[in-house]
Design brief:
homodimer, 310 residues, UDP-galactose 4-epimerase, domain 1, seven-stranded parallel β-sheet, globular
Chain lengths: 310, 310
């Protein structure tokens, strides 16, 4: 398979690239960020530039396009809606339109987000794909809009489109502005004697569906050969942030004091979220296999080793 | 009422302004096009400019905002999605965000379009507001996205939001790229001896829901004081394009030959479309009152008089 990954240099993109290469695909990397050194099969492309997107898709002639590019952090997206619109929605339109224009039928996998569900009611758990999309911020609104673009071209029938709605996914290499990575970095610094044994925390009560990024990217490849549609991806279980922290503290072996950081205490949150896996299991044969504790261990080790090598 | 109209210089905007003034509202006009001469209460504002939108809304402090601005012609929207996105979606986001930021509760009426329904199945007639939105072109996709932005702020509760989904509406002053206005202009030229008695036509079989723009703008004002939500607006009846043409030919009193224009023969179309009026009738007390034949007469007279004064 000739696989073209937009957003290849990001957290998920790197894991996806590794997985696709391991599965024997010929992988072409595209994105605004590149590895810095010239790498074979790598294209520096800003997806807001329609002509640049056209060039790379026409040159690669991919069998499968994975679209992971865009602004992925909610607070960043909140700041500038025009930019989010241009990147997350306009960029998606550029990519899928070029896939649509290719002569061959392309499989297209779009990484949307479970954020599109917005505020989830307890009565709606586990969350299925038929739950209404009710975005509550710019990021999730942009993902919903990008989904609409994908669905429009899906209806035209020339691109085989799958939309993934992953819930929280963690793993080595994730930026420390996300909660598990953040805790792990703080603990690794403490364990190395680089910081006082104090962990700054936000709301620890919220229960979220955490899965491993390596399970998620495995699902993306399975989705690419599915019959299309929208799929929730997650663990199917809810874990409290407190639980993540407790496991990470146990892994680090340090004793810490918790300190509430007002900046991390978000506003009224949904108490609990977890997904149904029925659709993706039955139609794509995917289930997550990596236990959360293993993911957290790897996240911690990644930070510890990185600090050690600095 | 202090009413602020975005897109005031457009076809619908002019009719809305006239209706609001007639109803006693103090009307503020905003838009990228202005009347050309300085007019009281008129603001030249490009809605893609967030700061400019902020200034006019903060200065006017409206009770009600009518948002009619944007690219309204399907083929124009098809050409440049980035531009459509920036104007129709980004512009909407700028306007409603500023309404949301005002201290007072603002009534917001967004002119979306029945185009969001896309291809309508015969079994789904008459079209109700619960029919799925399945945009099939850039214009309708942009309208659906703009609706999502409006719905997001509606959920936050600080703006009273109504979304109008008008079906085809006609009336004096409509640009001649729309079908009824186009026929009327051709016939007026023939009647004045300025053109040969040949009418170029496209597909005459399609049956569409045509109403009068003056009924539509009356609905907009009623929507502004409704409890919010999404409302189809139309005549509730389907008229063939052939019927419109026949009525216009009768009004003009000329004898013509029809000539098929391949450029006007659009691709596979939906045979028949007409809306349910149940929701808007029961919740807003609105029904259209102007007969189609009267609308067509006014459209024809408008062109005839304009040609005469040139």
């Amino acid at each position: 398979m000739r696989a073209l990954v937009f957003g290849a240099a990001g957290f998920v993109g790197k894991h996806l690239t590794e997985h696709l290469q391991g599965a024997g695909d010929t992988v072409y990397l595209a994105g605004i960020r590149t590895s810095g050194t010239p790498v074979e099969n790598e294209f520096a492309v800003d997806i807001t530039d329609a002509a640049a997107v056209r060039r790379v898709i026409q040159e690669v002639e991919p069998d499968t396009v994975y679209h992971l590019a865009g602004i992925a952090f909610v607070p960043e997206a909140e700041g500038d809606f025009d930019r989010v619109l241009s990147i997350n929605v306009g960029g998606t339109a550029h990519i899928i339109r070029e896939c649509h224009e290719l002569n061959a039928r392309v499989n297209f996998v779009f990484a949307s987000s479970a954020e599109v569900y917005g505020a989830i009611n307890a009565a709606d758990l586990p969350v299925t794909e038929s739950a209404p999309a009710r975005p509550k911020n710019n990021y999730s609104a942009s993902k919903q809009m990008a989904e609409l673009i994908v669905e429009r071209y899906a209806r035209e029938g020339r691109v085989q489109c799958s939309i993934a709605r992953p819930f929280n996914h963690i793993g080595p290499g994730q930026e420390p502005r996300f909660v598990a990575s953040n805790f792990a970095l703080q603990l690794a610094r403490i364990a190395r004697g680089e910081a006082a044994p104090i962990i700054r925390v936000g709301n620890l009560e919220a229960r979220r569906d955490f899965s491993d990024v390596r399970d998620i990217v495995r699902a993306y490849r399975l989705l690419s050969t599915s019959s299309g549609g929208t799929f929730n991806l997650g663990s199917g279980k809810a874990y409290s942030i407190q639980y993540l922290l407790d496991v990470l503290i146990g892994i680090s072996g340090v004793e810490v004091t918790l300190e509430t950081d007002p900046e991390r205490m978000r506003g009224p949150e949904v108490a609990e979220v977890y997904t149904s896996l029925d659709k993706v299991q039955s139609l794509c044969g995917w289930s997550p296999v990596i236990p959360l504790e293993r993911s957290l261990e790897d996240v911690y080790r990644c930070w510890f080793d990185r600090l050690a090598s600095e």
